[in-house]
Amino acid sequence: MTLEQRLLDFRGLDLLASGDSAIHRSDARAKILVALVFLVCVMSFERHALAPLLPYFAFPIVFAAWAGLPGGLVARKAALVLPFALAVGLANPWFERHEVARIAGLELSAGWLSLASIVLRSLLAGAAAVVLVAVTGFPALCDALARIGVPRPFVVQLMFLYRYLTVLGEEAARMTAAREQRACGRPLALAGFGALAGQLLLRSFERAERIYRAMRARGFDGEFHGGAPARLSGRDVAAATICCVLLVALRVGDLAGRVGELAIGSWR
Fold first, then answer.
1. Is CB count within 10 Å lower at the N or C end of the chain?
2. Where are the domains of the chain?
3. Which pTM does this prediction carry?
4. How far is 36 from 253, CA to CA, in rounded Å?
5. What is the pLDDT of residues 155-178, one digit of tens each?
6. Which helix H or strand E contains 6, and what residues bound it?
7. What is the pLDDT of residue 234?
8. Which residues pair with 102 in a beta bridge?
9. Strand 106-109 and strand 99-103: pairing?
10. Are 129 and 32 in contact (CB under 8 A)?
11. Any idea what DSSP says for residue 98?
C-alpha cells in the first residue's frame, strides 16, 4: 500500500463510525464500559491460558457483523499489534521448556503456550479497540471519556494526537511524492533517510503551529466543544449490563474454558 492509501485506510474508521446500526446509535459510554469489562476478563486469565481465550473472539466478530463492519478491515487493523506481541513473548519458549500439553501430536512447552496466549490476548484487545472506534468515532469516544471522568488534559491530548497523525501522514505523503519525482526511480538511500525524516519533523512542527494559531484565532480555549451531549438511555444501560454480565459469567463460571477445551480437543 502507498502512503496515500494508508492514510485513506486510517480514515476509514471515521467513515465506518457514521453507520446507522443499533450499535452505532448506542451511547459511547456504554460501549466503553463493555470494552473495559471485555479487556479485564481477557487479561485476567493466567499466563498459559489458551483455550479459555478462544470463545472471546465471538464478541468482536458478532459486534462487527452486527454493525456491518468489513471483516477484512477489522482483522487487518487488529493484526497491527502482532509485531509488538511477538516482540514481548518471543523469548518465552527458551525460558520455559517443560512440556505442558500435546496438540495434534505435537509437544508444546510452557513457553510456546505463553507466547500463544500473549498473541491471542493482543489480537482480542486490538479487535475490541478497532470495533469500538469503528462504531463510535474517535471524537465521540474522547467526548465520552471526558464525561465519565477522565482528566480533560488527557482527553485533549488524545484528540490532538489523532488529528496530528493525519497531518504528519499528509506531510510525509507530499515529501515522498516530491522525492519520487526527482529521484527517477532510484531507491531512497539510508543516508538520505535521516535528512528526509528531519525535514518531515520540521515541516510537521511548522504546520502544526499554523493549525494551532488558526484554532486560537477561532476561539479555541483548550477544549473541543461538540454538539449537545447524548443522553444515556435505559436501552443502552440494559444492553451494556447484559453484555457485561455475560462476559463476567464466562470468566467466573469457567464457561469460556470449557468451550475452548472442546474446540482444542477436536484438533488433538
1. N
2. 16-150+234-268, 156-232
3. 0.79
4. 19
5. 888 888 887 777 777 777 777 777
6. helix 3-16
7. 86
8. 107
9. antiparallel
10. no
11. S
